[in-house]
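Mods, move this if it's the wrong board.
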Amino acid sequence: MLRGPPPQELEIDSIRKPIPSRGIVRMSQSPTPNASPYPDLKNQVALVLGAGQSGNPKSKHWGNGAAIAKVLSTSGAKVIACDVNLDAAQQTASRIQASGGVCDAAQADVTSARDIQRVTDQVLTKYGDQTQPQNRLSQLPCRSPDHGRQGSGSIINNASIAGMRYLGKPQVAYASAKVAVMHFTKVTGVMYAGKGVRVNSVAPGMMYTPLLEMLGNSESDNDREVYRKITDHNVPSGVMGDAFDVANCVAFLASHSSRYITGQNLVVDGGLTSSTGTGGVPAPSPKL
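Not the wrong board. Structure tokens:
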């Protein structure tokens, strides 16, 4: 999490209140699984890589990949939840099936070109050429997309705001990998535009997921609450997002509504990368 000023310098109880001078209205912190469906995704096939999630499987929150699979399913897509951990992929598939969605589970290591080719071939054999891959991890096998031979498709890569600015942590390799994902997206978006294949990416900001929830369990209840409020405070929207904020953007990029968008990176961060990282605190008025 982003850690701002020390707790004693911040009025924690007032962080989530609207600031009258700017009229800020705080968002809800509850999970947001309900989204407007995209009818054109009905019966399309979506391969979601990294669809498992870490943390408590009984958590009310969803991981980014799992939420993406859920939202695409809500629009009527036939989803393949793929993860290196088959149990995690099956957990996601079960949650989606429980609500009436169509979702199969598959196992693959996304760093292995052989694994990805195997899963892709399995999907194409079962469902035909209507697949929308959603690559959640940064280590993507650099190979020509199978969409080229079918003349259509949408690929959405998972980037991060860590590739856009320093977030206060020494995550050099992670941040560099996310920069690579964004540029990879731009280049391949142009290369395959003429073949009817769109390639875009999403860059999530500070998202509250089961993994973050699990990491927070190593801290005391008081410290966890303080740091959560500080992080909320640093986001201009006033609260951390959740995986469904990311998933809803992925569904848009997979749909025909974004047919003229390719090679782009969609930032989903509540305004964080456009801000100074001090959230909704109004700047002092200059003395004239």
